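2024-03-11 09:14:02 INFO queue: dequeued item G-protein coupled receptors family 1 profile domain-containing protein, len=361
2024-03-11 09:14:02 INFO validating residues
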Amino acid sequence: MTMNHTSMANVLEAAEEYYDYYKEEQNIQLCSNTNIHAFSQVFLPTIYSIVFIMGFVGNALVLCVLVKYHQRSNVTDVCLFNLALSDLLFLISLPFWAHYAAVSEWSFGSFMCHMVTALYMLGFYGSIFFMILMTLDRYSVIVHAHNSLFSKYRSVRASIAVAMFMWALSLGASLPTIIFSQVINDSNVLMCKEEYPEETFLLLFSYIEMNLLGLIIPLSVMVFCYSRIIPILMAMKSQKRHKAVKLVLVLVIVFFLFWTPYNIVLFMKFLRQFGYMASCQWEENLNMATQWVETLAFSHCCLNPIIYAFVGQKFRNSILKIFKQWFPICFGRCSIIVSEISERRSSMYSNSSVVSSTKIV
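2024-03-11 09:14:37 INFO prediction written
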């Protein structure tokens, strides 16, 4: 036992020495990111504010419609509700990150560092997991429509249980980042970031986890399910099948375009930990690219209400009802204006038809 402990200690010490030597050999050095910080102080607060306002309004409307008008909830409503809720959790964290980017210092304390990181990560993984759940639900309804097994377990109680399981998965995937996020005093500047005890393992694991759960797995599920759904929709005789197929293609393409650049940059940062792209120019380029691709990925939560909810006719009618109740004066005037315009168009059309008929005579 003594020899085993001694040999293990020697192995760990040799591995640590090799890692330090490897970093020196690869010339991984601390680089100045003054230009990046100056750019992010203006760019990130502006973009985060726009995404927060647009996403908060859209997802809040989805929650209001589902709570107010959908008394008999189904599986789709449960998925939509949790998708909008996860997007709202994610969006609540953006004002804190915007302030953090604007002043280049964390001003909210250690507890809020953990809390804001928890909102950010839970919303991030929750949004992706519930998109996967909605895809699987559509797959089971369309592809296995005649299978009694799927219809038996497609109840509201079962969907709520599955939703709770998805939230548990989101919490499990978020825990490492939440736990190791802390306020650090870096050159008399307070920063809220992840500080892993063993950077060689946990940091690399976080990059791999983001790539797998954030892009590879959800995109694979969407491609597989919708590749089976589209032929069935095309075989239907309904006139709305082309609209349904277009919506399916939009779902996959939008998810791919918005999340792939973000995951590519994460993978490049993963490679940087092994000594590739170790120059300061590469670090500056990756930091600049991170800001752009993060903004693109974050804005996807603004599109979720449009893609999943507002496309449906019933959902749009419910939103109009809410607007008429909240803003009766505005919508009353708008309805009067619309009716007057329609009457003028109809009268102009009738007059032009009379004039043309007299000319013909």
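2024-03-11 09:14:37 INFO annotate: The chain is about 85% helix and 5% strand.
2024-03-11 09:14:38 INFO item closed
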